[in-house]
Amino acid sequence: MDKKYGVYICTGCGIGDTLDMEALVDVPEEEGVNCTTHPFLCSKEGVAVIQKDVDDGKVNAMVIGACSRRVNFDVFNFDGCIVERTNLREGVVWPHSRETYPMLTEDQKDDEEHFDPVQMKAEDYIKMGMIRVEKVNLPEAYQTESFSKKILVLGGGVTGMSAALDAAKTGYDVTIVEKADKLGGYAANMRSQMPVSEPFEELRAPVVNELIAEVESFSNIDVKTSTQVARIAGQPGEFTVTFKKPGEKIPFDVPFPLPEEMLVDENGKELDAEAQHAKYLEFNEGREDILQLDPNGELYGAVVLAAGWRPAVLKGEAYAHLGLDLPDVVTNDEFEKIAAKGKIIKPSDGKEAKNVVFIQSPGKEEDDADFEYTGSVTSQVALKQARYVRDDYADGKAYIIYQHMRTPGLQEYFYKSMQQEDGVFMTKGAVTEVIQQGNNLAVTASNTLLGENLAIKADMVVVAGGMVPATKDDPIINLAYRQGPGFRDNDIFGQYADSNYICFPYETQRTGIYAAGAVRRSMTIEESIEDATGAALKAIQCIESANRGMAVHPRSGDITYPDFFFQRCTQCKRCTVECPFGALDDDAKGTPKANPTRCRRCGTCMGACPERIISFADYTIDSIGSQVKAVGVPSEDDYDEPPFRFLALICENDAFPALDMVGMNKIDYSPNVRFITVRCLGSVNTIWIKDALAQGMDGVILIGCKHGDDYQCHFVKGSELAEVRVKKIGDALSSLALEEERVAFAEVAIDEYDKLPEIINAFVEEVEALGPNPFKGF
């Protein structure tokens, strides 16, 4: 692309009133680049000015100095052009008023005692924008060699069938894979479902049979029962899937998870991710075929994981007081199966079970927790099963002893109706003992709402077992990925299929694979049906995006993808290991192998690479590094007391919007900080920090999303990785005789904009107390 440069600066929204426009225009014109100003650049007339220059062939790489790139992004969109948005409004003139920082007089401009920090910032931003359009290229979309729009649904229960029907109704071909010999899943063994219509007081018959009949009526839904997925290789749009019968062994089965003894070193200490990765490669030595496509496999565009759940197995000393070894003490799962066969009867002798106690938590005096994998669903199941007792026996009695009763949404009406039901007794309490007493059971409980201990004579006791996701201890999807066949880091989610639960439900860390139903969290049938719709729509969205070479969320529409300069690759594996989405495999020689449609375009690989060989068309080590070097760093040669200069690298998902809101609310912070927005803090390469300090900047701060178990990072681990890298850079700073405090890391949520000025100013004050960077002026 033969670039033709142009700079356009808006003077509206206070920009022209706050800045010395003549001096600002001189910045590009001194470089031989034409600069045009307009009082209302985003207006129809303003856009027409730019469009005319484009149509006349004068400009195809432009810097627009106006408002934030987060607004008017559709207005300043010029086909075939590189567009850099320089944030003069929210980033300069709105937070830094002339009341606080007066504009210099003509006499002061040439005086070394005076400087204008606001004008300096604006001019630096224009310079940074100009160097970026010089360093980046117009991206071209990646095109797959072959492409499929078929959707694979793993699981033939209510969730899986609902997802398949939703996709099929939009015209997509769908394959349902079910390991059992028939469709239906757990719902096929249920007696009733929760109420779904007003007044939410009556149970309804399961919908499973209706769904099965509907699935069978669709010609574009292929059902494979008694079948499992042996392996999924490839990427969205071209997943190659190999099927097998349950129990069948095929040569390329991935031997994973690793045996426990291979996850620890010789001292029994758990290995880090990189060491585990090395063990994995060693474990698969000579079996590189696990990463290859199966020539006999079937091609799919996206996958919906709807494998459901299995009942929790309650055993161990912690539950000994509940009498789980007694024949008439059953789990809620076992009770449902009994109820589905007819009237409720005792397992021990087949006699009527009219008095039933439902235990919702482990109990004991000091324990107020629930059973594992329980929640609102198990609360609703207890209410539903209590209704069975009343429906089967006019004189039946149901006792529900709970620590937490959760009935969200409209199910509260059902809860209230059960409260009014004769023969149903509910109380908060801790069950202390369940023992056999003749032909009956004796249940005792303490700490009840009534303040008294309870002693109940019962025919049966039902213990609320949780809904364990099918993904626990079994990857199910069996991915032929170097990072393993399942999901990463799902210990955070309690072995549920992972997703960025705040922003992107359904989306797992494996691009193109969307979780729905009880593999994502415990859900009722009604919730699972709704969840299936969301996952099906996400799968369709992924297919259509991949077909156009575009990324899915959160950088939806991005057509860039990582490019490698393999001549300098040292095969260190850092990019492969640190990629949050498993977008990189290794070839047989251990060289990274990119899967572009798996990629979320976060740039974490770029930040991880010590050789700096990874780049994107419009986002490179050089483009950001050149922006850093474009920042003016005043020294004593320029001013008697030169201002400090700071660099802030901020993520585009939380910190950047928060910074915009700071500007919109006209909250002041140090104007000596230059902000560069990055795709994710995980993409920050430490060379940018070193370059900033080497050219004399006084400090560098990275500001990103919150991380941890309740992370808010759109790319899962970007902020966490960045913080680790910042800590490791301390040794390098010491070798340069620089204080570690000159480089900092901070977290901020998108709605914590009011805290951002405090974070920035506190960092500035701390570094100013250290004094200027000794490299300033060299």
Word description of this protein:
The chain has 6 domains: 1-138, Rossmann fold (3-Layer(aba) Sandwich), CATH 3.40.50; 151-252 and 290-310 and 470-547, FAD/NAD(P)-binding domain (3-Layer(bba) Sandwich); 254-286, no CATH class; 314-465, FAD/NAD(P)-binding domain; 563-615, Alpha-Beta Plaits, CATH 3.30.70.20; 619-778, Rossmann fold (3-Layer(aba) Sandwich). It contains 21 helices and 30 strands. Helix 17 (655-664) links the parallel strand 27 and strand 28 (673-678). Helix 2 runs parallel beside helix 6.
Please tell me what the overall shape is. elongated
CATH class of the largest domain: Alpha Beta
What proportion of the residues form beta strands (DSSP E)? 15-25%
Number of helices: 21
Number of domains: 6
- C-alpha end-to-end distance: 36 Å
* Total E-strand runs: 30
- Determine Rg (CA atoms, Å): 31 Å
* Overall pLDDT metric: 91
Low-confidence stretches: 253-257
What is the topology, as strand order, of the major beta sheet? 7-6-5-11-22
Going by CATH, the homologous superfamily of the largest domain would be FAD/NAD(P)-binding domain
CATH topology of the largest domain: FAD/NAD(P)-binding domain
Largest sheet geometry: 5 strands, parallel
Structural class: alpha/beta
> What's the CATH architecture of the largest domain?
3-Layer(bba) Sandwich
Helix fraction, binned, reads 25-40%
Organism: Desulfobacula toluolica (strain DSM 7467 / Tol2)
Protein name: QmoB: predicted quinone interacting membrane bound oxidoreductase, subunit B
Keywords: 4Fe-4S, FAD, Flavoprotein, Iron, Iron-sulfur, Metal-binding, Oxidoreductase
Pfam families: DAO, Fer4_9, FlpD
